[in-house]
Amino acid sequence: MSNKNFLEIGLFVGVKGIKGEVKLKSYTEVPENLFSYKVFYLDNSSKPINITFIRKVKQNLICKIENITTRNDAEKLRGLKLLIKRDQLSTLADDEFYQVDLLGFQVYNLNRDSLGEIITFNDFGGGLLIEVKKNDKKFYLPMSSDFLEDINYVEREVVLNLDLNFIKD
């Protein structure tokens, strides 16, 4: 069911207990902010689901989904994506972006040297990083405002203020 009208905001990664509770990995900046959205979908269904936040355990959210009452029922959700419709997203300021919209963008430095293609985003505590792939090699580049020069949505490219020596072999 995934298409441009939907946005993946979480992944069911496991179960908790015997009463049908599920472990959900949230893709929102603050995991609990996932519940600021009102209507959710599974990636295998166009029917909305009702999901309730129970508690947070480490980095996962423990949730209850309507009509899921046993561990076996909950196990069927493992590996499924949690989606929202894109029209639920708030309007962004000019200097903001949704990470998912930049996946697959080409990355260049100011000299137009290719640094690779964005494959994912990570923040290990020191600021936002993009994982980039170039010539079968993967590496991380900083994506903070100190380095970000431009995002061109039409050309699907990001320009960073980085020296090419930054990624020498």
Describe the structure.
This protein has 169 residues and is mainly beta. 5% of the residues lie in helices and 45% in strands. It contains two helices and 13 strands. The chain has helices at residues 71-75, 99-102, and strands at 6-16, 21-26, 40-42, 48-49, 51-57, 60-65, 81-85, 106-109, 114-123, 128-134, 137-142, 148-152, 157-160. Strands 4-3-7-1-2-6-5 form a seven-stranded antiparallel beta sheet. It has a six-stranded mixed beta sheet with strand order 11-10-9-8-13-12. β8 (106-109) and β9 form a beta hairpin. The model has no long low-confidence stretch (mean pLDDT 88).
Share of residues in helices? under 10%
Uncertain ranges: none
Q: Strand pairing plus helix content: what structural class?
A: mainly beta
**Would you tell me the overall average pLDDT?**
88
| Number of H/I helices | 2
Question: Mind telling me the C-alpha Rg?
Answer: 19 Å
* End-to-end gap: 40 Å
Categorize the overall geometry. Answer: elongated
Strand content: 35-45%
Biggest β-sheet: count, sense, barrel? 7 strands, antiparallel
Provide the descriptors you would attach to this structure in a database record.
single chain, 169 residues, mainly beta, 7-stranded antiparallel sheet, 6-stranded mixed sheet, 2 helices, 13 strands
Question: Helix and strand layout, with pairings?
Answer:
Layout: E1 6-16, E2 21-26, E3 40-42, E4 48-49, E5 51-57, E6 60-65, H1 71-75, E7 81-85, H2 99-102, E8 106-109, E9 114-123, E10 128-134, E11 137-142, E12 148-152, E13 157-160
Parallel strand pairs: 8-13
Antiparallel strand pairs: 1-2, 1-7, 2-6, 3-4, 3-7, 5-6, 8-9, 9-10, 10-11, 12-13
